[in-house]
Every structure is written in structure tokens, then in C-alpha cells.
Amino acid sequence: xxxxxxxxxxxxxxxxxxxxxxTVTQAAANLGSPGKHLLDLRVAEEFWEVQQEDVGLWAEKxxxxxxxxxxxxxxxxxxxxxxxxxxxEVYYYAAYKKGKRLWEIDKRxxxxxxxxxxxxxxxxxxxxxx
Length: 130
Fold this sequence. Notes:
Elements: E1 15-21, H1 26-31, E2 36-49, E3 54-72, E4 84-97, E5 100-106, E6 111-114, E7 117-118, H2 121-126
Antiparallel strand pairs: 1-4, 2-3, 3-4, 4-5, 5-6, 6-7
């Protein structure tokens, strides 16, 4: 019959993210320190709805709790970006659009929401965590 690769409920693989900076900044240097870091990333996404002839902005927000895996200080060269970057292990990740939660993955507290549905509530109940 073949193989079937299906993850167990609530078992989320390791998540990581890379953040790039054009130059060395205090924020980049701070992210190099050991320990957890709270990242709150905001986007003002402009939209154009052709049928309603409406133009406006959607507020997007991405929240991550991360731990630094590596930080590259980049390079120094005339007339070029330093290309500073860092790689981070992500253990909490949530996204919001127009104030509404799109998803929330909290590996340490065994929570996994997509929209309003908690896909790990049964796992937490079975383990006596609720």
C-alpha cells in the first residue's frame, strides 16, 4: 500500500525564522544575546477592492517568541549593505489580520489554533493539563 506520513495531533515540528538587516543596528545586536526574545512585527497592507471601488489598509501583526540560534554580523564593503542576519528557533507564533487571529501556535503550552478552533484541547485534556 505504501507509506503515509501524517503527524500526530499537536506534534508540531521545529519552526525557525531568519531575519535580515541591511546594516548593523542595536536591534540586531540585541537579538544576538542568549535567551528568549519577543518579536512583534507589524505590517500596514494596502488593499484595492476593484468591485467595491474601495482602497484602504489592513493591519497585520505577527508575534513570535524566539531563541537565537545564530547571528551573522555581515560584511563591510564600500557602497553595499552589510547583510546582517540571524536565525531563530520559534516556539510561539501568532498572526492577526484586521484584529482577528489567523493562527496561534504555542509549543510550550500545547496550544494550536487556526482561526477560533483549538486543535490541541483534547490532547491537553487527555494529559490532565486542563
